[in-house]
Design goal:
Blueprint (H helix, E strand, L loop, with lengths): L1 E5 L6 H12 L3 E3 H10 L3 H11 L6 H12 L8 E4 L5 H13 L6 E6 L2 H9 L1 E4 L5 E3 L18 E2 L6 H25 L2 E5 L4 H16 L1
Parallel strand pairs: 1-3, 1-4, 2-3, 4-8
Antiparallel strand pairs: 5-6, 5-7
Helix pairs in contact: 1-8, 2-3, 2-4, 3-4, 6-7
The chain binds zinc ion.
């Protein structure tokens, strides 16, 4: 099965990507993992990407695409894969489509994790991080025994800038601006399926698998 997973920040995409890939016995391929592997492996593309990252610039599309192409050419991706974080926009989606068609194949499905914005804010803005050990707590879902104190190490808990409500709402706006055209592109291709990504992690995985299992046979 060749699938792409999309979803807003705070939708638990990384976790679902891992579970789904393991249920389907396909590799989970995320752009973050590909960047790290190329940089630590010292590949030419990795060296190129590192120059941009060291300057604080975005890695250009053509470098990302070349890395994705290399990764999808590896043996373990021949029977299928789950892409997480790529494509990020319509031009990348078009290039992916072309790449796969050169290999006489195509995407089977694009699974969208659908979560209401207020729910994302509730999830992320409730997070508190320990200054000492880095453990992440949640005021509602996983509160520490004593307010403001890490149960694990006694360290002080604080709210990361990334988790502040204004920041979360801004990231959601950016996501919507960048991703809605991508979602429409795949809807037009007739391969987009959205699932409700609220509730317990296991239930979300089950909803995803209910959609994916029939396609895997
Ligand atoms: Zn701690």
């Amino acid at each position: 099965m060749r699938l792409v997973l999309v979803g807003p920040p705070g939708a638990g995409k990384g976790t679902q990507a891992q579970f789904i890939a393991s249920h389907l016995s396909i590799p989970k391929i995320s752009t973050g993992d590909i960047f790290r592997a190329n940089v630590s492996g010292g590949t030419e593309l990795g060296k190129l990407a590192k120059q941009y990252m060291d300057r604080g610039d975005l890695v250009p599309d053509e470098v990302t695409i070349a890395m994705v192409r290399d990764r999808l050419s590896e043996d373990d991706a021949q029977e299928g894969f789950l892409l997480d974080g790529f494509p990020r926009n319509v031009p990348q989606a078009e290039i992916l489509k072309k790449m796969l068609s050169e290999w006489d194949t195509k995407l089977d499905i694009v699974l969208e994790l659908v979560v209401d914005n207020d729910e994302v804010v509730r999830r992320l803005a409730g997070r508190r991080t320990c200054r000492s050990c880095g453990k992440v707590w949640h005021l509602v879902f996983d509160p520490p025994a004593k307010e403001g104190v890490c149960d694990a190490c006694g360290g002080e808990l604080f709210q990361r800038d990334d988790d502040r409500e204004e920041t979360v709402r801004h990231r959601l706006q950016v996501y919507e601006r960048d991703t809605s055209p991508l979602v429409s592109f795949y809807a037009d291709e007739g391969i987009l399926v959205g699932i409700d990504a609220t509730g317990p992690v296991e239930e979300i995985t089950e909803r995803a698998m209910a959609v994916l299992r029939p396609l895997a046979d």
